[in-house]
Amino acid sequence: MSSRLIDIITARDPEVRNRSLDAFCRTASLKELLDECAALEAFRRASDNLYERVRALFFLYAIHRFHLPDKLSPDLTGFGKPVRSLIPYDGYTHLLQRRFEEAIDCFLALQTADGPTEAISSALAEAYHRLGFQTLADQVRRSVRSVRGNQWMFRTGHPMDHPLRVRRELLQRSAEGLFPVLHEATPVRMDLSHSGWSDIFFLGMDFPEGARVLNVSIDLAVHGRDPAPRPPVEAYIRVIDEPLLRLVSVDLGAVAEITNLAEVFDYARDYLGLLKAAIIAAGIIPPGMEGSGERLQDLLARLIPSSRGETGIFSPAGGTKGGTYGLELVSQVNGIPKGSRLAVSTSLLACLIAVCMRATGQTQALTGMLQEHERRLVAARAILGEWLAGSGGGWQDSGGVWPGMKLITGQLAGPDDPEYGISRGRLLPGHHLMGYDEVSADTRERLQKSLVLVHGGMAQDVGPILEMVTEKYLLRSEAEWIGRQKAMGIYDEIVGLLRQGDVRSIGDATTRNFFDPIQTIIPWANNLYTTTLVERAKATFGDDFWGFWMLGGMSGGGMGFIFDPHRRAEAQERLLAMMLATKRELENALPFAMEPVVYDFAINEHGTVAELRTGTEALMSPSYYAFLVPALLKRERYALTHARRAELDRFGAACRTNPALAGMVQTLFDRIIPRADQEDVSQRTLDALLEELGFDRIQHEQIRADLRSGRIGLAQNRLSASTVIEDVYPGDVANCELRIANCESRTMNHESRIMIREFPIPNHQSPITNYGLQALREGRVAVVTLAAGVGSRWTHGAGVVKALHPFCKLGGKHRSFIEVHLAKSRRVGDQVGMPIPHIITTSYLTHEPIRDFLAQRDNYGYTGPLYLSPGRAVGLRLIPMARDLRFAWEEMPQQLLDEQAQKVLESLHAALIGWAQQMGEGNDYRDNVPQQCLHPVGHWFEIPNLLKNGVLAKVLAERPQLETLMLHNIDTVGADVDATVLGQHLASGATMTIEVITRRVEDRGGGLARVDGNLRLIEGMALPHEEDEFKLSYYNSNTMWISIDKLLALFELTRDDLHDAGKIDEAVRAVAARMPTYITLKDVKKRWGHGQEDVFPVAQFEKLWGDMTALPGMTTQYVVVHRLRGQQLKEPAQLDGWLRDGSAAYVESLCAWD
Amino acid sequence: MHITKAVITAAGRNQRTLPMQTLTDRDGAEKSVLAILVEEALSAGIDEIAVVVAPGDEGPYAATVGDHAGRLHFIPQTDPRGYGHAIYCAKPFVGDAPFLHLVGDHLYVSADTQSCAQQLVAVAEAENCAVSAVQATRENLLPYYGTVGGKRVPGRKDLYEIDTVIEKPTPTEAELRLIVPGLRAGHYLCFFGMHVLTPAVMEILESRISETRISESANQRITLSEALAVLATREKYLALEERALRYDVGVKYGLVIAQLALALSGGDREEILTRLVEMLATRELRRGA
Question: Cα A799 vs. chain centroid, distance in angstroms?
Answer without folding.
Answer: 14
